[in-house]
Design brief:
The chain is of the alpha/beta class. The protein has 2 domains: about 5-70; about 70-260, P-loop containing nucleotide triphosphate hydrolases (Rossmann fold). The chain is about 55% helix and about 10% strand. It has a 5-stranded parallel β-sheet with strand order 2-3-4-1-5. α9 (about 180-195) links the parallel β3 (about 170-175) and β4. The N and C termini lie far apart (about 85 Å).
Length: about 260
């Protein structure tokens, strides 16, 4: 004959199915023994069951946001070699990972030669934002411009900018690797302006701000764009040789040589 306990568990399983929360059923059983052993109150037990469900949902949601962000690879702060890149202050990076800049619509800019960890840090910080419930979108600078150009050609530029704004954070990678024509520069400027003091950007570039005029073909446009990006930003300049070339005999990349020559 079924016991009262059996009937109760049947009821719990039914309610969990109705709530579409099967983990509650599993955690309720798992935590029941611990609650009895440790003398939890009914309130303690309820809080533990619900807390485990919330934590599981948050982890699942973070995973979905990471997948939707379009990162080219998974990167974490744990994987980053701070010893190879002393210009990246560990304390500053972990403070940024806490996400305060997101609530203030602030930006983060990583500048430096190829291979110094700019994209790694950008993705790792953006993934932390995903874990905090923020919608994120990642693309290269050229990729963002392509999106905007396509939308502009079919008369949906405003809609595309609104779509981007639905993300609390966008990552713009590799500014400076390819020059923009006048139309592309204008579209990129509109993307930056649409987010100014409204939502956040993490941006990486291999060029110092003084050379952005070469990329956008117009010093005035570059200056106006930089002004909006850095107004509420932390700018972190990374230095040194490429981490990817650490086991090779190559010591200097062409872009680094050009940078030194320019300076």
């Amino acid at each position: 004959m079924p016991t009262r306990t059996d009937d109760t568990w049947t009821r719990v399983e039914y309610l969990a199915r109705q709530l579409k929360a099967p983990r509650i059923r599993d955690m309720a059983r798992r935590l029941a023994d611990q609650a009895a052993q440790d003398g939890w109150t009914h309130l303690d037990y309820l809080a533990a069951v619900l807390g485990s469900e919330v934590a599981a949902r948050e982890a699942s949601g973070a995973g979905q946001r990471v997948r939707a962000a379009g990162f080219p690879a998974r990167k974490t702060l744990t994987d980053f070699n701070f010893d190879h890149q002393p210009a990246a202050d560990r304390g500053q990076i972990h403070r940024l990972a806490a996400g305060g800049y997101l609530t203030e619509a602030g930006n983060i800019v990583f500048l430096g030669p190829p291979g110094t960890g700019k994209t790694h840090l950008a993705i790792a910080l953006a993934a932390e934002a995903c874990a905090q419930g923020v919608r994120v979108a990642f693309d290269t600078a050229a990729g963002w411009v392509t999106r905007l150009q396509t939308a502009h050609q079919i008369g949906r530029l405003a809609a595309e900018l609104r779509k981007a704004h639905r993300h609390g954070l966008i990552v713009i990678d590799e500014v400076g690797y390819l020059p923009f024509d006048a139309e592309a520069a204008n579209l990129f400027f509109q993307l930056v302006t649409s987010r100014y003091e409204r939502s956040s950007i993490i941006l990486t570039s291999n060029l110092a701000f003084s050379r952005w005029g070469q990329v956008f073909g117009d010093q005035a446009v570059a200056a106006a764009m930089i002004d909006r990006i850095v107004h509420h930003a932390e700018v972190i300049t990374l230095k040194g040789a490429s981490y990817r070339l650490r086991h090779t005999t190559i010591e200097t990349l062409p872009s680094m040589a050009a940078e030194h020559k320019t300076n």
